[in-house]
Design a protein that fits this description.
By secondary structure, this protein is an alpha/beta fold. Helix content is about 35%, strand content about 10%. The chain has a domain at about 45-260: Aldolase class I (TIM Barrel, Alpha-Beta Barrel). It is built from 13 helices and ten strands. It has a seven-stranded mixed sheet with strand order 2-3-6-7-8-9-10. A three-stranded mixed sheet has the order 1-5-4. Helix 9 links the parallel strand 9 (about 230-235) and strand 10 (about 260-265). The radius of gyration is 22 Å and the shape is globular. It starts with about 30 loop residues before the first helix and ends in an 11-residue tail after the last helix. This is DNA repair photolyase.
């Protein structure tokens, strides 16, 4: 820990909040910290651990009416990127962990995801519907460099000519350019790159282990130059932190080849409100009250907003100003560009073909 500000470096969350599903909770007491100091021991090694889990399914039906996707899949649970605002933090509580530091340091790895995906695509009742990779946690987070699960899943999508979309803020997606180009040739891929700010200082504070802004813009350019359709997520927009950057961000991503932009307002549901409040009071104390007040103003006076249709866009004067800026950005930079629809027509024929081997006999699937 930093002695100056008592800040855990390289992490977003600065504490482990209590898991609402567990009776017991873990607390780091001052007397323990003092003992470690006197003994010359490290109280918290701040290491990331990878834990293999064995889910029975990998494709999830999304029932929320305002999310904008029908099906998602997540090769990893938890995310080492450490974005302080991440809505996925709450999902870590279902696995028995904290939405705070545990979310960033205990990464659950689903090595059987490619097999489960193939089983799903071969099931009798499945018809082609776009599956979004990383609907919850980033499929190109640092764990992917070791486990390569996302790449193996993309190989399955290509094998069966099935449409897939990706959401990421990691430039590591460039490793899979070969597969992305093949998927693009059949109209099967859409990529969403999240860029929250043009400021590296802001990025390091909000998203400590993500790719730099420069690398993300370069990724948008590389994908676009290879005709891979890219939408940029200016998300989330946080009043008094990055809300002033909407127009310059839109201009920059357009110049790098993005076809469209999308946005969401920050919302601090569940445990995230406590995590974010603790974080901003420690890292941006001069701005803390202003930011928290303006976030609440966008959500009916509360940091927590679960109302469908409003929770992602916000309401009130500040939200209205942000909506107007997004409208101006789209009209100025994206009026003449269209984001292509994915191809759902190839899958059934390809699946039928894959069910038969070279001897004309059906496979075990």
């Amino acid at each position: 820990m930093s002695k100056e500000k008592n800040i855990i470096k390289g992490r977003g969350a600065q504490l482990n909040v209590r898991n609402k599903f567990l009776e017991a909770s873990h607390e780091t007491r001052d007397d323990f910290l003092e003992y470690c100091r006197l003994e010359g021991e490290v109280a918290d090694k701040n290491k990331t651990s990878y834990l293999e889990v064995f889910p029975k399914t990998i494709v999830n039906k999304v029932t929320s009416p305002d999310v904008g996707m029908a099906y998602s899949m997540n090769p990893y649970q938890g995310c080492e990127h450490g974005c302080i605002y991440c809505y996925a933090r709450n999902s870590h509580e279902y696995w028995g962990y904290s939405a705070g530091l545990d979310f960033e340091r205990k990464i659950l790895v689903k090595k059987n995801a490619p097999h489960l995906l193939e089983q799903k695509l071969l099931s009798k009742n499945w018809s082609a519907k776009t599956i979004v990779m990383a609907g919850n946690t980033d499929c190109y987070q640092p764990a992917e460099q070791e486990f390569r699960i996302t790449r193996k899943c993309l190989e399955i999508f290509l094998k069966y000519k099935h449409p897939v979309a990706i959401i990421t803020k990691n430039a590591f997606i460039r490793r899979d350019l070969d597969l992305l180009k093949e998927l693009t040739a059949h109209g099967l891929i859409a990529v969403n790159i999240s860029i929250t700010s043009l400021s590296e200082e802001t990025r390091r504070v909000l998203e400590p282990r993500t790719a730099s802004i420069k690398k993300r813009l370069e990724t948008v350019k590389l994908l676009s130059e290879n005709n891979i359709p890219v939408n940029v997520m200016i998300a989330p927009i946080i009043p008094a932190i990055n809300s002033h950057e909407i127009l310059p961000l839109a201009k920059a991503v357009k110049e790098h080849g993005a076809l469209s932009i999308a946005f969401t307002m920050v919302r601090l549901n569940g445990a995230i409100g406590e995590i974010f409040t603790d974080w901003i009071q420690k890292t941006l104390p001069d701005k803390a009250e202003k930011v928290l007040h303006q976030i609440a103003e966008c959500h009916g006076g509360s940091l927590n907003d679960s109302r469908y249709g409003v929770r992602k866009t916000g309401e009130g004067k500040i939200a209205e100003q942000i909506h107007n800026l997004i409208r101006i950005a789209r009209n100025t930079y994206f009026k003449d560009t269209d984001f292509p629809k994915l191809n759902h027509s190839l899958f059934e024929m390809q699946r039928h073909k894959m069910k038969y081997n070279s001897n004309g006999q059906t496979s075990l699937f």
